[in-house]
Amino acid sequence: MSDSVPVSLSALIRRRKPGYSLEAPFYTSSKIFERDLEIIFGRHWIYVGVEPDVPEPGDCMVVDIGRISVVVVRDDSMAIRAYHNVCRHRGARLVHEPKTTVGNLVCRYHQWTYGLDGNLMFAEHMGKGFDTSCHNLKPVHLRSLEGLLFICLADEPPSDFDGMAAALGPYIAPHDVRNTKVVKEVDLIEPGNWKLTMENNRECYHCGGNHPELTIPLFAYGFGYAPEEMDEVQREQAGRYACMVRDYSAAWEAMGLPSREIEHLDDRITGFRAQRLPIDGEGESQTMDTKVACRKLLGHLTNPKLGGLTVWTQPNSWHHFMSDHIVTFSVIPLSPEKTLLRTKWLVHKDAVEGVDYDLERLTEVWIATNAQDSELVGYTQEGVRSPAYEPGPYSPYTEMLVEKFCNWYLARLAAHLDDRHAV
User: Fold this and answer.
1) Which candidate among 43, 308, 360, 420 keeps its CA 20 to 30 Å from the CA of 263?
2) Where does the chain cross the membrane (predicted)?
3) What is the pLDDT of residue 223?
4) How far apart are the C-alpha atoms of 45 and 53, rounded to whole Å?
5) Residues near 209 by Cβ (< 8 Å), separated by ≥ 6?
6) How does 300-319 read in b/e, with b if 16+ C-beta sit within 10 Å?
7) Stretch 22-40: mean pLDDT, rounded?
8) What is the dihedral of CA 307, 144, 185, 286, to 10 degrees?
9) Which tens digits make up the pLDDT trace of 235-253?
10) In terms of CATH, what superfamily is 165-412?
């Protein structure tokens, strides 16, 4: 459906058939893309990075979401703050590099100078009656979930962040994100709509045929399967996996590591899911040999065989926490048909490259997997452009969580729409 056809977005939402993919305009329309930026990314908690992105006072990180630029900075008291990356004089961008270190935030244009607390400290030639306190940087809501950083661009953010933090905090805390460091960051531009990137992540139906590296450590059975369609060998493997989940989960829980699935993907404004699952082979890490890639384990962990903790948050993140390293993923829309996937790898802050870890070995599984997924997203984007495309049925065994993502997305859109919004 072209952008020129005045169809109500509310009507598109109402006529969506449960259990089926979304209609083409949700993936191609520039007007729906603008609504996504305004409503989904403009009114919800968005995952943007980790506390170790800004480890020391004066360290800054810039995050761009649509036309909005945000600077995240650690101040002199070690608190982390976020501001709109806009000078209060004539609007010039303050911080231009993705990451940098500053003493103060100084506008290059006319040298208006702000402290790390956002207060305007210096503005030359503005006259004796000029009140600097009326021109401080505009703050952006920021919260940390055990070291994972979320921002909200709305004046009033969703009030349920504390509920998510209370549920997910005990799962994440043992991995001690705050005492890690980012050892690699990769930005990948995927050739598709951001929702296709997210939908692809929310299922492993495609894993067996497309991810030879990932399926070495990862059991696809952890994300659903159709038992009546399995042969004898597959049933045996699935049974072995079920026993592993039961036995390992009990052992991990006894160690004080929450492991059972908690899932609120489509019944809360700030949706989330977490579960600790076994890793195949040696059972240690998401690596090609399934052994730890970093000999210095995270936090106070001493047992390398802790499987992989998967954490998802709506609308734009997923994370894998192992005993030795963490991989985090942030999805940012760039255009109706281009999406930024930002991946970070973290290890213990005291780990030494070449001594405790080999960077290539640490990153090779997800570098390969991301490239494969990007190609699949591109294939799908090409298909949804076709007049022949119509919504197809999700597998009730393997794509249940894709359905929950779509349910969440449509419900959050609908909560802020009226019939004047056309696509």
Assistant:
1) 43
2) none
3) 67
4) 18
5) none
6) ebeebbbbbbbbbbbbbbbb
7) 97
8) 0
9) 888 888 888 889 999 999 9
10) Naphthalene 1,2-dioxygenase Alpha Subunit; Chain A, domain 1 (3.90.380.10)
